[in-house]
Design brief:
Layout: H1 10-32, H2 36-59, H3 69-91, H4 105-127, H5 129-132, H6 142-148
Helix pairs in contact: 1-2, 2-3, 4-6
C-alpha cells in the first residue's frame, strides 16, 4: 500500500479505511445538512478521534515515510481537524439546544454502560495494545493498536 504514509499490511489498511469512511459519512451529513444539532453530537467525537490520531502520530514519527506526499497530508489533517473541532465547539457554544426528546431511562443505562465498557477498553488498549488485541484475528503492532484505541 504505497499511498499510506507508513508501511502497512493490507488488512490494517482496510480497517483504517473503514474507520475513515465512517468518519467521512458523519462529516458528509454536516455538509448536506449544515445545522448545529447534528454537529453538537459529532464535533466532540471528531475532536477526540483526531486528537488521539495526533498524539499517536507525534509519539511514532519513525513510522512515517517523509518522502511520501501522503505523510504531509496526514500531518496536516492530524493538526487541523482537532483545531477546527475546538474552534467550532467554542464559537457555537452559546447556541440554544434543539428541541430534545429525553432518552428513556432504561436505554440511558444501556448506552452509558456500553460507553463505559468501550471507553475503558479504548484507554486500556492505548496503554497495552499488543496484549489487549491478542485475541483479534490479525496481528496488531503497538502503533496500530494505539491508532485503533
Amino acid at each position: 500500500m504505497t499511498a499510506w504514509p507508513w508501511p502497512i499490511e493490507s488488512f490494517n489498511a482496510l480497517f483504517l479505511g473503514a474507520v475513515f469512511l465512517a468518519s467521512l459519512a458523519a462529516v458528509g451529513m454536516l455538509i448536506v445538512y449544515p445545522r448545529w444539532a447534528p454537529a453538537r453530537l459529532l464535533l466532540p467525537m471528531i475532536f477526540v478521534f483526531s486528537s488521539l490520531m495526533l498524539l499517536v502520530t507525534l509519539v511514532y514519527p519513525q513510522r512515517f515515510q517523509f518522502e511520501r506526499w501522503s505523510t504531509y497530508i496526514w500531518y496536516a489533517l492530524c493538526l487541523g481537524l482537532p483545531a477546527v473541532a475546538v474552534y467550532c465547539l467554542y464559537a457555537y457554544r452559546n447556541l440554544p439546544s434543539p428541541v430534545t426528546f429525553p432518552t428513556p431511562p432504561r436505554w440511558r443505562q444501556v448506552l452509558l454502560g456500553h460507553a463505559l465498557v468501550m471507553g475503558l477498553y479504548g484507554f486500556a488498549m492505548f496503554a497495552a495494545p499488543i496484549w489487549l488485541t491478542s485475541f483479534w484475528p490479525w496481528e496488531i503492532d503497538a502503533f496500530h493498536g494505539r491508532l485503533y484505541s
